[in-house]
Amino acid sequence: MTGYRRWRVPGGCYFFTVNLARRKNNFLLVQHINVLREAFRKVKQAHPFHFDAVVVLPEHLHCVLTLPDGDDDYSMRWRQIKSAFSEKLPPVEYRPHSRRKNERGIWQRRFWEHVIRNEEDYAAHVDYVHYNPVKHGYVERVIDWPYSSFHRYVTCGLYPTDWSDTTQIKDLDLD
Questions:
Q1: 147 in catalytic set
Q2: Catalytic residue among 14, 74, 128, 147
Q3: Which of 59, 91, 110, 150 could crosslink 130 through cysteines, CB 3.0-4.6 Å?
Q4: Domain annotation for the chain: domains and CATH numbers
């Protein structure tokens, strides 16, 4: 993948999927949700961004975020978020290739990003983020997953508490 290039739009809105290195039966992110929240706060304070939508699942997270005008450095933000989270966790066994790069081996090195192109694309990705805990079978109703911006959307009147429009979600299969 040496020729891989990311599409960068200064001040752009992006969808991200960020995974732990070991996804199977790993509840690390929700077990340490406050550490993850603090990592987000720390990086956001130093390098502003806006979470449009976010969901944290046991072993991965999805989010839609917007960068400030003129700024396109989302990679630096993810590197710092991952690092801030990892350094606060108890020591774990390193993966052999992680030692060379002074990494803990908690996160996958890469992440998946998508530039949001228009309002329809934005709405589809926000819906996808919020529906993801149901898709993965963690809950039967979106409202029942506590680690999601869905609750903020309900409070603001953007979604009803019983929202679950699966038609749009099935069309956007990103996992």
A1: yes
A2: 147
A3: 150
A4: 13-171 (3.30.70.1290)
